[in-house]
Amino acid sequence: VFGATVLRDVIQRHRLQDATLALVDLNEEVVGMMAALGRRMAADLNVDCSISAHRDRLEALPESDFVILSACPQGERRWKMDCDILEQAGLPGQRRECGGLGGLSNALRAISLALDVCRDIERHCPKALLLDVTNPMPRVVTAVNRFTTVKAYGFCNAAFGGPIGYDHTGFYFVRNPVGYDGIAGELGRNSADLEVITAGMNHFAWLVTVKDCQTGQDLTADLHDAVRRRTGLDAAILSTWLDTYGALAMSGVHHQSEYMSPDPRIVYHSHSPYHGAGDIGKQHRERLRAVVNGQAEWQALVAEGSWEHPVDVAVAWAGGVECCPHMINLPNQGCLSDVPAGRIVEGPANVRSGVIQGLEVGRLPGKAGELCRLVSDVHELVAAGAALGSREKLAAAIEADMAIPEKKMAIAALDLLLDAHRDILPRFHA
Questions:
Q1: Residue 217, class by beta-carbon neighbours within 10 Å (0-12 exposed, 13-18 middle, 19+ buried)?
Q2: In the predicted model, what is the mean pLDDT of residues 178-189?
């Protein structure tokens, strides 16, 4: 998923001649096949780049300019362990990927790996940027920026609702089977005529404005009315949030709800949230093997990658070209006035020649800014708890988290989670 997109962006979209791309995975067969795929693409497109495969990241890191992290430690297996513990603790509604108690446990594992990777970056390529696509995104990026010397930025396009952008896709999980065409379709406009801004936190973004590019007419209220007219469960939930908080959620019901108080209408994860898990992963590997063996073409395989493009930012950073991503996760330096400075926020940015600058958005509409500050407070506590091995910080995060109403039960379950994952959470068991 993410690996295929990196190959596509380096080789097909940007055609980076003389680039060196080192792929790392613990599965020797998979990383070897992915490297072989990249070499085939480069040969077909006449791109002269070097692609190598490694099981040990220490072989790949020296002299690196950018490190893209898309790894999750034993994702599916650990996820099932969490689910069993939460079920036994009477907290099945906390079975979440990024928010709540499930998201806290997932964050501990992701942050532990990220910090270990960054210690190696500090030794072997101290000037490299970490470009993160591992969830829970803001917690990982916060921990790296707070507790290492590595600069980290996060990439997730969930607020787009699809692979292309705001233009041609619907609000996440709010789709019309008869051809719903996203924001443009709801407004009856051509997508090229609209300027859309979303901002907030990752998986917790809100619509700021929709405007007509030519006239400057603000169409935000029109879009709100269009959403209220829609039918279906997800549309009803979006409308409830819109009426309650005065803002339109843009990361989708599935993601946005993970950070909010439980809603009996919402069923949280019942299966592994990780890309490539289970039978889907087997299918991906079979397709990859067919391409590498010359039994299939590579174009369709790489076209189905992720929505995120950290390579775009790397190219702009290093090459002097300008890149203006609609959303990037970065320290708040004048981007959102509702969130304390330095916190990791998500919003539009400008990237060029070694500078990544978030654009000024100001205050979020309605109560969205207040909600983002509360979610950000929890991110900070979880990141600190994970980095310092502090159960006290994690208990404080649970107390502050509006997504966890059962405080005493959750704090008791925290001990079970920490013990179950003690082999990969050494900071808590020194």
A1: exposed
A2: 64
